Fold this protein.
Amino acid sequence: MTVVVVTDSSACIGPERGGSAIAVAPLHVFVDGVDLREGVDTIPEDFAAKGPVTTAGASPSELTDLYSDALDRSGGDGVVAVHISRGLSSTWEAARQAAAAVGDRVRVVDSASAGMGLGYAVLAAARSAANGDGLDDVYDTAASMTARTSSFIVVDRLDHLRRGGRIGAAAALLGTALAMKPVLHLTDGKLVLGEKARTSTKALNKLVDAASRVAEGAADSGDDDSSDDDLAMTVHHMLCPDRADTVVSMLRERIAHPIDIDVVPFGAVLGAHVGPGAVGVVVAQ
């Protein structure tokens, strides 16, 4: 048997990328008081217009059941659970409680990220497990990848992030009273203010600048453990595929060496916080 990798639906990897080897805990979207499980229940594309929207992480009991099943599937080899940043969701704390309940063959990794910032760590761990690596090695692979991803995002409006407590009042002020378009960086598992711009076009340029610097810096680092082929990038968007395609074109013009760039919509849980029009870029090296 092999180590089983578990994550949550904020990873945005989907069954077509993760395959059946990865167990996914659904996070929750409450639309007008109705609990919808991301990746399980049908969530309307225009859910934000249907009433008050809130989100919730996976519960300890949900994760306990999932980890127990994954441990059985592993034949006792163990479980590595890689989850959304503890600074963005209650899921990590629920994961810690669930792991303690199931036993020491469950290891939990705080990705300090979300979306494909989490997804790249999950996929790296799954590859390690598929290669027959043991519990410690799979855990180390996931933890290493979390340190080698960078995430940036531009949102049309900061209201969604402010209401959900994912960004501070000072940054929210920039996007409302001061009419600024900030580029947000995911740093130490939290969204922090990066560059500032007056217009959406300038903000997207600064977003591309930030992601390009990371990609070019990784390619030029001379690290023997990495190569251009190790670089990967995902452009996320919330209901704005044309804007995402524009960012992809800008990135390809800006980055000198070839790099894989995927376009992946934000899931409903992340989308509820970033709002329509949001574009993010994740760089993995």
Summary: The mean pLDDT is 88.
